[in-house]
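3.2 Worked example (two chains)
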Amino acid sequence: MASSSGSTYKISLLTGVAIVVANMVGTGVFTSLGFQVVDIRSGFALLMLWGVGGVIALCGALSYGELAAALPRSGGEYHYLSRIYHPAVGFLSGWVSATVGFAAPTALAAMALGRYAQSLWPEVSPSALSVGVVLALALVHSSSRQAGSKFQVLVTAIKVLVLAGFIGAGLLVAKPQAIEFVPRGASDWQQLLSPAFAVSLVYVSYAYSGWNAAVYLTGEVDQPQRNLPRILLLGTGMVLLLFVGLNFVFLYSTPISKLSGQLEVGFVVATELFGPAAGRLMGGAIAVLLISTVSSMIFAGPRIVQVMGEDLPTLRPLAKLSVNGIPVRATIFQTALTLLFILTATFEQVLLYAGFVLSLFTFLSVLGLFVLRFRQPQLPRPYRAWGYPFTPLLFLLLNGWTLWFIGRSKPVETLYGLATLAAGLLVYFVSQRLWSQPQPSSQP
């Protein structure tokens, strides 16, 4: 690890894994099962949702590992798609990440945090608490990269330990429900091909969506070509095991009728397992754990806006770094958007809208792995995706299938996503036109 001085401090393997785990283990796993059981009642199909979502995330992480090693620069999809396709495609990806990709999930995590905290402290205003947590963490990450890194590792370690303990305790004290986790016949297998399963994968994919978080910080990672693939795979693999274990405990211990339509799934399950008092305590604990998720997104997201500002004159003011090498202006920009989502939209609206547009650009990025190998076969690749071409093809197949069903069954959210892209294209071409015109001379 490099010197710990503010501008030269490098993100280690451990901190990188913590950022990935914190991004992934957040709102989705504590909230989405309640939406899934509305249309899917098979224990086998519900667990398969989380297994398939984990496989998608692992295949994506393997693919992104090669892209990150071959194109080592912060910015994530913005940098990859600009290099692979066209700067306009990269700009659209950055536009989505800057306006939706981090601000919306940060808002979702903060909103869930407020709802869970209310289970322990009924007098607390969820919105006020959500806003306060976002502002406090933005201040921490704007002051020192080293302090932010240490805070991230600490809260993520606590999160993993608490969740592992919850899984163990749940298995010991749960009263098994009348639900089967092995397929009972053709109907269970058929559910895996149903529109309900495909749309539910949106919620699961959202829960896993932080697997690519570390690529946004490539320029700040110690030995990125060596460590980034390890960070992506270690973080994603750890979370897959946690998610399948948690959802098994949720379904094993609690009647589906009590879970159906509930946002605070963790609170409902903890109440069923340990009683009302312990349930409220667990709700408060989950609220504390969600601080880690909000923190990691506030840490990673502004780096995309910073890199876009380095490339595009229109956004250059947002690329300015503080004396400690932190994109403070970009952090303020993302924080303002996050607060806008918290104060103006509902949880499910934000989730489906964000899920569609984010899945679209991860699809294009993994497809870009094939394009890059075809166009630049001689490009140095310190890491090559394991299982190529099957692992990226599996990702594209499953992700594309989900996108197709979202478009068919959730047209309103799809249209909002497409409208966001259209607005981004307009901003790109207007800014290109303005900056391509000759500038007036400053000579007298």
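3.2.1 Second chain
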Amino acid sequence: MRVRGVVVVRAAIALFEGVTLLDAVGPYEMWAGLPGVEVVFVAAGRGPVRDGGGTGALVADAAFGEVERADVVCVPGGVGQARHMDGGPLVEWVRAVDAASTWTTSVCTGSLVLAAAGLLEGRRATSHWLALEELGRRGARPVEERVVVDGRYVTAAGVSAGIDMGLVLAERMAGERAAQVVQLATEYDPRPPFGAGSRHTAPVEVVEWMRARSRFALRGR
């Protein structure tokens, strides 16, 4: 869309009950300050949308029916994602706006929603490490990387990887210098106090504790 000679990119971030807030906020922070980029939170209805714990919320600016087109589509993950795997308004909206999007993206288990919409069949994609097998069962080709680009589909691994994905798209939307400004403005220079951010570096007992309590593992019991 062009407004007074300025190209405006609309990025629509989907929300649903049980969303992981950082999944949505990470990309939002990387895009909201870009020149010519408009970011909108969209959900089944306007108003607050609660996270998985029910204690935090984001506010949807628009309902699905009010956002029929978007240049960038982003689907975050969260425990509520499981309620959308058999279709419904979220999946239908994602499928519809994807038809004209420039980029369709996801964070964490949001890639499972993209798969449920039939968008990742045979494509390389990633998700939270605990969801990679499920992603494969849904027709994608799981890749254990932080950000995976396959054509116009960009998927991010678990939660914090949405910040990285947001920067990848920031460069494509506004150029490398603009993306670098955003990275510096947010002081995104991670130096975590522990080396437990990957299943390959975390203590074995921590990995197994999480695996045993994963909703993907518990579902089969």
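3.3 Remarks
The chain has two domains: 2-190, 192-221.
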